[in-house]
Each structure stands twice: as C-alpha cells, then as structure tokens.
Specification:
This is Ribosomal RNA small subunit methyltransferase D. It contains 5 helices and 9 strands, in the order ββαβαβαβαβαβββ. It has one domain: Vaccinia Virus protein VP39 (Rossmann fold). The chain has 184 residues and is α/β, with parallel strands linked by helices. The model has no long low-confidence stretch (mean pLDDT 91). The strands form 2 sheets. A 7-stranded mixed sheet has the order 5-4-3-6-7-9-8, sandwiched between helices.
Length: 184
C-alpha cells in the first residue's frame, strides 16, 4: 500500500500571508492557482471581512483558507475524499482557526440537507465529474450573497435567474466567474 504524497499551497494574503499548508496529492484535486486566487480575492476584497463562507468541494482548501486569512467570520469546508478532509482539519489546527469546520462527505448531499444562508460560496468541483450543475441547483442563497464558480471552458452551466454575473475571466482550460444573488 503506497503512502499518499503531499503537496503545498501558499496563502497569498491576509493574516496568514505566505504560510504554506500541505494537501494530499489525490486524483482530481487541483488547488486554484495563485494568480487566479489573487484575482478572485481582489474581486472580493471588500466582501470578505465578517462573511460566512462555504468552500464546497474544498479539496486543498485554498479558497476557504484564503477567505479565513482575509477576515471571513466563518468557513465551512465540504470535502468527500477522507485524506483531503483529514488534511483540512490538520491545517485548521496548525493555523489555530477555531472559526471553521470540515464536513467529510458528499457536498451535494450536504447542500441538499443544509439550506442555511452563506454570504460567500466557492463552487470549484472536480472537473469531468458533472458536479457543478447539481451543486448550482442545490444552493439556496439570499439576495446579496456572492458565488465564485470555476469550471471547464467547455461547460455551459445553467445559472438561476437571480444569479447576476459581475466578473468573468477565462483561460484555455477553465472559466472563473463571480455572481451576486439579486432579488427576483
């Protein structure tokens, strides 16, 4: 039985700026790249402090840790892979972050069973698994909430009418977008 290798990510801003955290090298886990995270958190710079955030399909936790580092009030990490979920918990202990929790299980199931409101949601599911549309459909958010979505360029997800796109960028491989939930 082979031991799962680990990799590192670097928090790029906030109180833990430049801290490095380990994450397991498991299939399908691809942390949001530093330059993309920098762009996203520039978009969100005035909306993080005091936010209640959800990092669905957390993987390495790069987005959730970045939000915590920049003043999010709370982050809930959802991660199905047991090794990745365990590493998220260990990283929270290392950072002494008491304002976060990890739910080790299916993110879609959690979203269906927990319709609680969040100010900020990160949706960056593993590519090629058809998880994005069911996650979008399961989310119930209040007006004013922000949703970051990262997906393959070839995907054309259907977004609810109350999701107004406010930012959009893409590379050859993937799109990253920011939506605000508006009143119907």
């Amino acid at each position: 039985m082979s031991k799962i290798q680990s990799q590192q990510l670097r928090i790029i801003g906030g109180q833990w700026r430049s801290r490095r955290l380990r994450f397991p090298a498991v299939d399908g886990l691809r942390p949001t790249m530093d330059r993309v995270r920098e762009t996203v958190f520039n978009w969100l710079q005035h909306d993080i402090a005091g936010a209640r955030a959800l990092d669905a399909f957390a993987g390495s936790g790069a987005l959730g840790f970045e939000a915590l580092s920049r003043g999010a009030k709370e982050v809930v990490f959802l991660e199905k892979h047991p090794t990745a979920a365990l590493q998220l918990r260990e990283n929270l202990e290392i950072l002494q972050a008491a304002n976060a929790q990890v739910w080790a299980g299916d993110a879609l199931l959690w979203l269906q069973q927990n319709p609680e409101p969040f100010d900020l949601v990160f949706l960056d599911p593993p590519f090629g698994k058809d998880l994005l549309q069911p996650a979008i459909d399961a989310l119930r958010l209040l007006p004013g909430a922000l949703v970051y979505v990262e997906h393959e360029v070839r995907l054309q997800p259907l977004f609810p009418a109350d999701w107004q796109e406010i930012k959009h960028k893409e590379t050859k491989e993937f799109c990253f977008r920011l939506f605000e939930i508006v009143a119907d």
